[in-house]
Amino acid sequence: MNSFSATQPNEEILKEERIHPGIFALPVLVLIAFGIITLPVIPFLTMTRNLASQFGSQQSQPAFNLIWLIVLLPDLLITGAVFVAVLVAYLKCHVTLTDKRLIYTTGFLARYSGELPLENIDALFMSEPLLGRLLGYGTVTVCTLGGTRFKLDFLSKPHLFHAALQRALAQAKSPVRSAPKLAPVPQDDSRYMPKPS
Prior knowledge:
By secondary structure, the protein is α+β, with helices and mostly antiparallel strands. The chain has five helices and seven strands. Helices cover 42% and strands 23% of the residues. A four-stranded antiparallel β-sheet has the order 1-2-3-4. The protein starts with 12 loop residues before the first strand and ends in a 25-residue tail after the last helix. 13% of the residues are buried.
């Protein structure tokens, strides 16, 4: 398995996750929104170009191409910037679950990263919005013993990660771990009596 972060000795990686590729729908939605805003301008520009060509002005053709570029360039630049931000978030965000800790790096513009020992996790919550259920992504929220909440957003197949985290927590908090060996207690009162010299 290809691990995202360095593991400690005797530590086994149980599950690694990236955020869901469905986040790339955001640049598409931005492009559609700008397309809807720009849509009324397109017939006006086409009509103006046709009128100019009827009057025999062939020199106005490059000017109209420049106007098209001025109208469409902001849409493409903003959509491209959103796409690059989403791509960086997709490549940089990951969650690794080992048998001892949860290691995470999340966030789009602001970066949140850290590691949390499994013994410090108090509760887990999973939520899947309607679109998330259709596309296969959701959020797993981890609550610590101190009351801090960590949201792991846009996880692919969150129910599988949630189940793996629950199993890891059950093993980490299991009382079956090897307890330290105590010195044997004598069965008689010899521990209270001085030894004969």
